[in-house]
TrEMBL record:
This is WD repeat-containing protein 75 second beta-propeller domain-containing protein. It is found in: Nucleus, Nucleolus. WD repeats lie at residues 273-314. InterPro entries: Beta-prop_WDR75_2nd, Quinoprot_gluc/sorb_DH_b-prop, WD40/YVTN_repeat-like_dom_sf, WD40_repeat_dom_sf, WD40_rpt. SMART domains: WD40 (SM00320). Residues 391-650 form the WD repeat-containing protein 75 second beta-propeller domain. Gene3D superfamilies: YVTN repeat-like/Quinoprotein amine dehydrogenase. Its main location: nucleus. Keywords: Nucleus, Repeat, Ribosome biogenesis, rRNA processing, WD repeat. The keyword Transport does not apply.
Amino acid sequence: MMMRGGRSLVSSPPAFSNDAKKLLVCTSNTVSVFSTATGLQITSLEGHTALVTSVVVVPPSSPAAKVLCYCWTASLDGTIRYWDFSVPELMKTIDIRVPIFNMVIPSFLDIPAVDKGKHQDLFAYVFTEDTKETQEKTKALRRQIRKCNLSKSRLVGRLILGETKKPEVLTVSPSGKFFGIRNKCKLHIWKVPDQGSEHAAVRKITLHHTKKITVIAFHPTQRVIAAGDVTGRILTWRGFGNIAFAENQKLINIQEDKPGVRDNDDADSCSTWHWHSAEVNVLSFSSDGAYLYSGGKEGVLVVWQLDTGKKKFLPRIGSPLLYFIDSPDPTLSAISCADNQIHLLKMPSMGILKTISGIKTPCCYPEMCKGLGNGIAFDQTAGLVALRTENYCIQFYSLFDDRGISEVHVCERNHQPGDDVTVIVTAVALSVDGSLMSTSEVKLAEEGIGGLVCLKFWQAGSQNKEFSLSTIVYDPHRDAGISAVTFHPSGNMVVSSSFGGDFKIWRCNNDIIQNDQMHQNFSWTCHAVGSYKKRPMTAAAFSADGSVLAVAAETLITLWNPYKNVLLAVLGETLTPIVNLSFLGKSDNLAAASCGSNPQLSVWSMSKLSLSWSYKLCIEAVASAVDSSSFAALALLPESSNETTFKGRDGVILLYNATNPVPTAIWSVKKAKGGALGFLQVNPSSVEEVDGKTPEVLLAYMSGDHEYVVFDPYCKDAHEVSISQKEGLSSLELKGQGGQYGYASIYGELPEFDKKSPETPWVPSFPSERPWETIFSGSSHNLPPLTKLCSAFLESLLEKRTAAVE
């Protein structure tokens, strides 16, 4: 067992508890329970062996039953489980032996009603996969809607309500009388039969549209259903099923005009609204049925008033919306976003109260930008990881607490979901103590015009990793891109290498500013410049004591004195360019990884200035322990061996001792492409002992999907690591649920205002030779007047004369 984290919080819709104090979130093969007051995880439901696809909270049968905490979960492992999530405790398991993609329970019976001396059964409708193949039935229609008797723990005979090619989302009406699915350009709606018999006939209608439908929602009290399509339109059918779902089937239908209804569908009318520019992902009616919430790729939550069509917006959420969940508390709702975040909203003002922040997903960059680095750095002392995000930020994520800590805005740009990528954060580096950070970014050229490289230095202002910008350097290596950025062990020196054939050493000037509150101001200046035969510099690393700087000049390793900028030695040549250098702890060995047609992992002896040993391996990442000579390497496996030998796993983690070419341990992993490794130093007082020993160093592996595991690499069984929290979650939860009265209970606490206006810190920067690259950077409301912009822009395009012409 290992400590796992970084799972997706938005793979399925979450669910509120009956008292709205807890939020149940599907996280891989578990269900995590969060406090809505603090946004912190309280407990988890563990037992499923595959992805959990649905969680349904049992509603209370009476107002007094709101304190009860029971739920049903469904999973791809083919089981449906019944939980008491207040303990937590597994109460019941139903194994239907087929993967379950989705589940709804239209009618709950907390206390079984008695009908003529017989208990009524509880039924669920599940979307499953037919794993049996016959000659008549191929893989074309293998996803089925089945009825499951939860009371008797079995599927209902051979009853199949519908079949589709792909698994669709089952949506149930708030009244529990209807449920439906979308299937391409059609809507299929079923009426839930009475609870009397499990074989009762299930009536169905179909509504048609001209575009592919993406989401549906039922009105809480009326026969109204809304659907969103791929073009951004929202359709609302009123009076659906008045004929097919009528109680008296002998009633004669009088044909009347049905505005907007296609193909003589069973509905009274159909109206259309259009605001979204892309497909609609979110649709949900308010609990009173007066409003409709919609959202999509734009990252904007729209509130429609059904009677008038008027709109209200919650803009700049920053990520496409996936789900909107209403809670039993009318003042609380939740939205799930594609950036793995869940925002708790205060209704009806739609202000964000808390954010449950998962790890951000990997960035999608153009093909020409591949190979610029994975943008991941580990803070070894604090157990944090810094990774780049799509909204031009660096996210700091706690590997031990499995939650987001903070975000640093690297680029002064307004990120809109769906926009073309114009800026890429190519590298991020942290100092040993985590107090300083350096980032490099590239502004992509548009049609060959306008490229720009920036090197930025940051300093931490508090323990929450709130970094502030200290120095900006435009085009630090002329027009060349930055290949690597590395901190000196002391933190007061940084080296940046470039593909243009040089590297630069930057020194920190630490000034203490005398104000009402004394604080340090860090500014960075270039200390030295080095190159070797005009070769591209592809990687760099400092030794443990900082006395030696190793810089890779393509296939060669050059050793420098970083203080005097003197070339000390040149190590032998590799077959392909080196992309990673790492000094192995306090030993006199250096590990180098090269990529290309002949990849290689090699270890070099600094005392002998020669090659110790090497392997022909394609290395994705290398990490070394600080206080020992051990290091770990993440190697990619050949595609031919994935399916047979390693059962789909595409990488292995190799643990080496620097002096021994035989690995001391090997672990096979999935999604190694784009992965990262890092050793973490742990405080012994915060780690529970395993077999009488306390691990001092842990190894963290982060996959290409940003899921991670943390384990003790020196333990044979790789036991699970338990970290004790500095402050209990229960105490934090009590703090967040403290009673408020009077003004604070209605409008919230008033913010504290500082009478003295904060002074904007001066950020030193080194100007670029092309100033027009940065004129239009920043938010639109912060731009200078047009007259100033135009004059500066036009002057930058003109060439100044160097001498007067007679």
